[in-house]
UniProtKB/TrEMBL annotation, chain A:
Superkingdom field: Bacteria
Domain 4Fe-4S ferredoxin-type: 3-33, 74-103
Keywords: 4Fe-4S, Iron, Iron-sulfur, Metal-binding, Repeat
Residues in coiled coil: none
Name of the featured protein: 4Fe-4S ferredoxin-type domain-containing protein
Organism: Adlercreutzia caecimuris B7
Gene3D superfamilies noted in UniProt: 3.30.70.20
GO molecular function, one term: 4 iron, 4 sulfur cluster binding
InterPro entries: 4Fe4S_Fe-S-bd (IPR017896), 4Fe4S_Fe_S_CS (IPR017900), RnfB_subfamily (IPR050294)
Automatic annotation (TrEMBL), chain B:
Xref: SMART domains: Molybdop_Fe4S4
Protein name, as recorded: Formate dehydrogenase subunit alpha
UniProt cross-references to PANTHER family, sorted A to Z: FORMATE DEHYDROGENASE H, RESPIRATORY NITRATE REDUCTASE
A GO molecular function held by the record: NADH dehydrogenase activity
4Fe-4S Mo/W bis-MGD-type domain ranges (all copies): 1-56
Amino acid sequence: MGSKFVIADPGLCIGCQTCMAGCLLKHSAPGDVAKPRLNLITTLTISAPIVCHHCADAPCVASCPEGALYFDEGRVAVKQERCIGCRSCVLACPYGAVDVVSQEGAAKLGGLTVESAPKAFLVKCDLCYDREGGPACVEACPTGGLMVVDEEELAARQRARRMKAAVASGAFASVPLNMDLN
Amino acid sequence: MEKHMAVCPYCGAGCKLNLLVDDGMVIGAEGIDGVTNEGELCLKGLSGFDFINDTKILTPRILHPMIRREKGGELERVTWDEALDFTAQRLTEIKEKYGPDAIMLTGSSRGPGNEANFVMQKFTRACIGTNNIDNCARTCHGPSVIGLMDTVGSGAMSVSIPNLENADLIMLFGYNPSASHPIVARRIVKAKEKGAKIIVVDPRSIETARIADLYIQIKNGCNLAFMNAFANVIVSENMHDKAFIDAHTSGFDAWWETIKNYTPESVAEVCGCDPDDIRKAARMYATAPNSVIGWGMGVTQQRQGVKVVHTIAAIACVANQIGRDNAGLAPVRGQNNVQGSCDMGMWPSLLPGYQKVENPEMRAKFEKAWGLPAGALPAEPGFKLTDLPHGVKEGKIRAFYNFGEDPLQTEPDSADMKETLENLDLLISQDIFMTQTTALADVVFPGTSWGEHDGVFSASDRTFQRFTAAVPPKGECKHDWQIFQELSTRMGYPMHYEDTEEIWNEVRELCPNFYGATYEKMAGTGHAQWPVPTLECPGTPTLYKNGQFNTADKKAILMAHDFVEPTELPDDAYPLVLCTVREVGHYSCRSMTGNCKVLSMLADEPGYVHINPADAEARNIRDEDLVWVSSRRGKVITRACLDERINKGAVYMTYQWWIGKCNDLTMHVTDPLSGTPEDKYSACEVHSIDDQVWAERHMQALYSALKDRLAAEAAPQNVAPAAEASAE
């Protein structure tokens, strides 16, 4: 699959929204939709920006009747021209990480530009696939509280946890182990 | 693309950055490896640059000088010569008729830098002949400056920002660094990662409370009671350092006479917390190897601000948690150069370098350096910024020269402030934007913006750093120091500086503690932390090493005071406490950040009133509803944020919103020792609005009308002066 996503560490997050500013700076280019793709959420104990997980079996992709959402090398990508603004993806996403907004756009009539008409835009994290240096939010976070989790990172975390579990299993060995080896 | 080194113009953290310039426009910012920020920036540093380009998102830049020939008349664009002649003549008339003390000035703690402020105070003292010069520290950390000078001798942080992360314990008292200084909050997170204990004492469950080892939720307005009890525990439980107290402090016995009465039980009701939590906090603080107390506006914008600072200083001294790299006092300053304004003598009782105006030797030194006859400099401390309203009402202040501040937005009781400004004989506003204050001015001087000039800023931890121009001045904008010197020259006291380095070298010569801070030393990411008395000295990150305090006998003076309740307690009509706070995405009066695209997209009018969900439910208010907030001073519309981090019985608003303007509600009552307004405590009520559709339209209409009015006030600058147009 090769799925990747950005995740926040709520212990390092200071709720400063610099990730959102970094995202907006990246996405305020002409032709893009200037809305932050991550949203800071705070509760009594948690502060963390919530953003698309690029799920391997993404409900948003499954929910789209027009194929506006699709898998592209491990990320959930958007074909903007196919979006009809039905918001099925907004309903389907368990992270609340997909948004559909209306942007004023110029309507064409036989090559003639007429008055502006609203156009639906699907707004979600694209992992800054076209940005050198990777996601702008990760780079912007002043506490290093955001990271890209990819297959490698997941595997490394799994290995570390399996190692910890293996070491702990010594406690219930039926034959005493030679602890001098440590 | 060009890169130009600067220091962020927002909070006092002193973050170094490069401004990215393409085709004369500032198009981006990137962090560089400064001593305090280590390459990191918060959202304002990262995306708060485009106001320089005159985006007109909120209000236009001022690019040409304008005057109002008649009080209440229209602004008219004139040539610089005419604007300066007009102003010099009006100021001279007022000085001759009412005396120099009828003129009041305020420095700017924002973008201009130390040199511009130094020249302004020189103009004030040497040319006008008054000490009526102040700065916005009066409204924020003034009590820290005064309270620390009273007790330990220097009105500044005793520790450095980088060393915060090496403390063993950090206690935050009325300070929310995540909102006011994210890059300082980063050091606190790093301290925690390195194993430090964190204590948070605050009515709100602030960001740092989430990683605190102990969070004590106190009632609003109980600071002195809490700190007295905290001090009481340290001594009662024998955790004070008797040898240090004997050798390095004075007044312990008298101090204890007051403190001994404040047992944790005696303050439990006032503070609304468990007495054992006070004990626990005091034990953690006193027994950790190196502890730092950080505080902010939660301490200073109170009725007893100075007294609480006295007590905090005493606590650090009796526990011997001061004078080491990782132990001490951390009042972290709000505006990026508010430390600098104080350093430069934008203070009615202090010459540059904290040299007292009342000291004849100091005055003689400055008189000699400034070519003035002996006795020319005024010896009496001048008016404070918060004396302006009653000073005008009593006819004592006739002219006010406002430099880069917006008192109509940032000072309490806006209606009263508006009347004050309107009743002046002459209001001069030197700014980069058409603010609400500038819109009332009789003279409008266009200064250059941050990004258009060079200079030195003082970060909150006494670190001098240089910043440089990225783009040339727009329109007819002049450097602030040029405006002051041209005005001074016209008024009979000539000044002719060529550049900021020449000004800075004069500062160095006059201020022994700044002497070693040369431009050369501060090149690139170089810095110099005062005191820096010699050219060889690299700077002094830590004050009071080995218990050597900056007082006459080198001993800290212990001061204790009895607790008094806040001035305006909640009652049936106004049952909620209104506390004004900061939010991370905007800065000061918002004229800068409100003109930045990304920052205004992230947060815009009318802002929020944060309210506990239970208090909201009792008033039939839902999250995101527009609501009325009213007090004895006024009534404003804003949006409700139902927030479980907020204590019941209190609501919180931020002071940068021009429609949801909390200073329409606050009251002009000040701490008598500092003149700092009690912005953290007044009484209010929040009312639901049934017709939300009407409310949204009403709010938008108010916002559009305000923006239109300010644009209209600035519009005359687009019409070239008649004199110039008709010239050959």
